[in-house]
Each structure stands twice: as C-alpha cells, then as structure tokens.
Amino acid sequence: MGNLTKNPKEVQQYLAGKESILQWLMGQVARAMKGKAGLKKTSKGSVEMTQYKKRLEEAVSNAQYMMIYASTHCKKDIDQETMKKLINARHHVEQGLKLSATAEADFWFNYQKLWKLVEPANAESIIANLPVERTFFGRLFGSMPVLSQWAEKLTTSKARKSVNRYITFTAAVLILLLVFQIYWVVGNQLTTQLNDLLEKRADLTLELNTNQKEYSTLETRYMQDELDSGKFNGAYTFDSSPVWRRDTLENKAANASINTDLESLNSQIDRNLNVLTAWSCPWASLINAGQAVVKDAGNGCEQGVGQDTGQAVVKDAGKEDKKYSPKYQPLINSIVKQINDVEDQLNQLGNDENTASIQNNPIKEQLGTIEVQLTKYATQIDDLKSQQTPEIKKKRIGELSDFQIKRGELLKLWAQWNLTPSGSQEEASIQSEIDKYDKVQIDVDRAPILLKDSYDSDDVFSKLDSEKSNLENEFTTMETQLVDIQEKMDNLNSQKDTLEAHLITAAEIRTQWQAESDKLNLEKEKLISQEEGDVKRESSLADQLAGQSVLNILQSYILPILYGLLGAGTSVLRSLSRKIKDVTYSGVTEIQHILSISLGALAGIMVGWFSFLIDAGTTTFLGSVSPLAIAFLVGYNIEPFFSRMDDALKMNKKSRQAAS
Known about the structure:
Blueprint: H1 2-5, H2 8-15, H3 22-33, H4 39-73, H5 80-95, H6 101-118, H7 123-128, E1 133-134, H8 136-142, H9 148-152, E2 155-156, H10 158-229, H11 242-279, H12 284-287, E3 292-295, E4 302-305, E5 312-314, E6 322-324, H13 329-349, H14 353-387, H15 390-419, H16 425-435, E7 441-444, E8 447-450, H17 451-454, H18 458-502, H19 506-582, H20 587-609, H21 621-624, H22 627-636, H23 638-659
Antiparallel strand pairs: 1-2, 3-4, 5-6, 7-8
C-alpha cells in the first residue's frame, strides 16, 4: 500500500467523499503489485476499510455534539467515565492515532449510552439545529475581503432553512390560492348575474310580445268596425277618436314601460358581458381556438367570432353598403325602402298647393254634402215653426189647464154655498168668493165663454179637454221632431268640424312627410343598435360558455389541489415547529415532508374528483362543509386519511380471503 502514501492528495480527496477517484487509486495499486494480487480483492478491502474509518470519524464527531446537547438539555447527568472515553477517542482521531480494539469497543459502548440519553434527539437532528451553514448572503459576500468577516456571521441551521423553504412554499400557495379563489368568485358572480339577467330578458320579451299581440288584436277590431260602419273612405280615422285613445292608453303605457325595462336590462347585460369578456382574457387564446380573432378595443382582449357571419348587404341611399345579420336584414331593408320613398315624395312635393288640393277634394265633397243636409234640416225647422210656434201651443195648453182648475174651485164653492145656512155671514163670505169668477172666460171656437155660465156644462169642458189633448199631442210631436232634427244637425256639424280639421296645406303635408321620415330613420337606428347589441351578445356567448367551463375546472381541479397543498403545507409547518422544539428534525424528516406535500396535492385532486358523491342537502358534517374545506382538512391530516384508506383495503382483502 506504499503506493497510496505517494499520492496523499488523491487519498485525501477520496476520504473527503470524491469516490470517482477510487478507480485511479486502484490502478496505482495494481501497478505496484504487478498483478500479484487481485484488483477486485484489493479494491473491496480498501473500500470497506475506508468506509469504516469514515464512519468512525463521523461517530466521534457526532459524539461531541451529543455530549454538548446532553450537558445543556438533558435532565440526567452524563457519566464521567463515559465522557472520558468519548473524549479520549476524539483525541486519538484528531491526532491520526489508531484506536486499540478495547478502546474502540469502549467507544461504541459509551456512544450507545449517550445516544439513549439524548433520545428522542440524535446526532443528526442536533447538528441540523445548529447554525453551522452559511446563508445565501453569507456565501454571496464571503468572497469579498472587505465583507468576509461580517459574512461569516451570517449562518443558519438546516432546520431553519427547511422552515424558510416551507414558509415560502406555503405563502406562495396561499397567494396563488387567493388569486384563483378571487378569480373564481368574480367569474361565478358574473355568470350567475348574467343567467339571472338573461332569464329576466326572456320574461320581458315574452311579456312584450303578448302586449303587442293585444294591441294588434284591438287595432284589427277597430279597423273591422270602421269598415262595417261604412265610414271608411280610403284612410282609417279611428286612431284619432277618444274611444281608441282610451282603450289603447293602458296598452301603450305598458308597452312603453316594458321597452324601458328591456333597454335597461340590455344595458346591464352588455356591461356584464364586457366585464365577463375582460375576466376571460387569460383564457382567450384557448376559447378562441379555431375562430377568427377580433381584438376588442374596449378592453384589449381578443374575442372570437364565427368565420361565416351570414350577414346580408343593404344599400342605404347616399351611404356606403352596410352588412347586417339575416335576422335584421329584412326589417332594415324595408325601412330603408320606405325612407327612400318618403325622400322622393319630399323632393317632388316642394311647395305645390295642387297636391294639397288633390288630397283635400274628397273632404270638400263630403263637406258639400253635409252643407246640403244642414240646409234641408234648417228648412224643416222653419216649416214646423211657421205652422204654429211651440210657444203659442204651450200658452194655449196653459190657459186650458188654468180654466179647468178654476172650474173645479168654483164647483167646490157652490157646494159649500148650498150647505151654508141662508142669510148667515159665512154664506155672504162664500158668495163674495164666487163673485170673483164672474169675469173668468176662455175662447172656444173663437167665441168667449164665461166660466160662471158654463162651469156646469159638460159639453163645453169636453171640447176644452179635447182641444187640450190635441194641443199636447201636437206640441209633443213638434218637440220630438225639433229635437231629432237638431241632433242630426249637431252630428253633421261634428262631422263637418272633423273634416275641416283634416284639410291641410302643402306645408302641413311636407311636415307630415318629414315627420314620417324622421320616424323611419329613428326606427332604423334603433334596429341597427339592436342588431349591434345582439351581435355583441352572441359573440360573447363563447366567453360565457368558456367561463362556465373555466369555473368548473377551477372548482373541480385547481382549487382542490391548492387547498390540499395549503393544508399539507400548514401541517408540515406545524410538524417542523414540534420537531425543532424537540430537536428531532433530520434528513428523514425532510423526506417525510416532501412526501406529505405530494400526497396533499393528490388528496386535494381526489376530493375534487369525488365531490359529486357528497350530498350538499344532508345535515351531516360532510354535507355542511364545502369540498374545498374538505380538501384542506384532508391535506392537513394526510397521514390519517391514507391510513384509513390502507385499513379499508386491508379489511376488504381479509373479507375476500374469508369468503374464498
């Protein structure tokens, strides 16, 4: 082995852990032995001796750390003899002296006693808690002469480095979880609100269609009534009647209210879709795969639209051709045609009064007919009044009635007079009352008749009753005729006023055409606005559907994994806290923690996969807790969770074996 002493540098490198130099050293030994000894045997023996020596040196070093720990932390004292033998072994190793067999045996025996004394701690865990490693900044500034002394003080322990790593990991998971959780909450709220708004819009649209059908039914009935009445003269006039306005007032008010609510709702839907589009920007490249991409200038997000829009071309006078969707193309095309016709009428009209005269001729003809009828009725009234005025007849009837009343009074007085004693004062008083009727008279057949001479003549009063009855009948007939003729004249005058109101000038015709043009242009702009809104909403449906898919992915996969990782990270930090306190942290602990983190992610995704098995309507613990909370709890209690699964598998295996 003398050849090895000639290469001390290489030997020290191997002892320091550089095992790749072993083959070179074995080659040197084989050259020195000149093939007399087997290389395999020499190599095996050298390696075993080297490894044993290395382990012995590590054990001696570890014993010193355990003695320091035992003297400061253990309640029991270290045996003095044990301490001496361990320190003696350290001196031999440091001086490069070989331990005797007895000294080596004593060392291992006392090493075992010291190991039991410091349990549950051990040499590895004690070293792991000592600040013997440089920090990142210590290594960074250690190469600088000016800062080297300061950098040597920047030390930490393996346990502390592990704590820092897992704190950073847990904080990163928590931040990532918060980002995804907030993103999910915003998206879920947007999609929920959008679904509610779309349902409300469907209800309002149905209500609007019902309202319009009611209006159309009422309009059709009024048109048919005007046709059946024979008053139709080429243009319907019922829409100017108070009855029509009264019957349609409630319908128009409801229609205006529904349209206002629908416009407000569409505005809310548009705002919601804009926010939803911005929300889905991170996924836009996936959503719009296979679609034509259009960049939304409002939020800088790319939106996908169909390759074939199916839009039709509509030519608008004086403007470039525009494209509209097939749903709106017939409506807009019809309105544009009407606008063009109205513009032609306005261009041809100018200030020509002939057009107004032509439109007024039918009305003037009807006015002429009404004037003829009014003249006829006025003549009839004059004829009736010329025969005998109602005032005369009414006066004559009053005279006859008064004469008859006084006759009755006279008869009563004569009856009292006959019953009164002759020559009495009462007789004289009654006679005085009777004398007052001496001059009461009435003309019958143009001859005057005194009441005192005829009050007891039935023939006279029969003639008077007959005359009164005839006069009353004539008076009633005349009054009826006059009232009937007057009503007809009033109706004709009302028709006359209505027709005169329809007489228009050329300026009024131009104003009407211009109003019609403005109305059509307003309808056209409204349809275009609706078409643009519908196109935008249809293009956002992909975002809505994709957003719902993204929410499902977040809720079923990403969030459960993050919650599982957060639970596992929290459990690891708790474990590190206990192990550092108990000085039991070691390399094995680090492996266990890495496995716990991996199993936490796996448990989280398992909870996400099988969350549909949990009935949210139950009153059990699992039914009252969300799957994400369960994922956190499983990640935190990862060992009990998988232990229960192992126990279940074992029980299942035993039951199958028993059955077989």
